[in-house]
């Protein structure tokens, strides 16, 4: 997945989120880091979504 730096992290698509804003149906993909984060102080399931702000 492209980033704004030279870093090239690896993610896998975990799922999709569907929602509606002002009557417009939208979808965002949800991703998880590879390998998944583990350890006593980290959440086992760390997921996130990417988006760009859009002026309606």
Question: Can you put this structure into words, describing what you see?
Answer:
With 56 residues, the protein is mainly beta. It has a domain at 13-49. It is built from no helices and three strands. The protein has strands at 11-21, 24-33, 47-49. Strands 1-2-3 form a three-stranded antiparallel sheet, with no helix packed on it. Strand 1 and strand 2 (24-33) form a beta hairpin. It is extended and about 40 Å long. The relative contact order is 0.25. The model has no long low-confidence stretch (mean pLDDT 77).
Topology:
Blueprint: E1 11-21, E2 24-33, E3 47-49
Antiparallel strand pairs: 1-2, 2-3
Main features:
extended, 56 residues, mainly beta, 3 strands
Major β-sheet annotation: 3 strands, antiparallel
- Name the strands of the widest sheet in spatial order: 1-2-3
Helical segment count = 0
- Unreliable stretches: none
Would you tell me the structural class of the helices and strands?
A: mainly beta
In short:
With 56 residues, the chain is mainly beta. It has strands at 11-21, 24-33, 47-49. The protein has a domain at 13-49.
């Amino acid at each position: 997945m492209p980033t704004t730096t030279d870093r090239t992290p690896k993610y896998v698509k975990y799922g999709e989120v569907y929602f509606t804003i002002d009557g417009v149906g939208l979808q965002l993909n949800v991703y998880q880091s590879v390998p998944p984060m583990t350890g006593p102080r980290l959440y086992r399931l760390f997921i996130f979504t990417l988006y760009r702000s859009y002026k309606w």
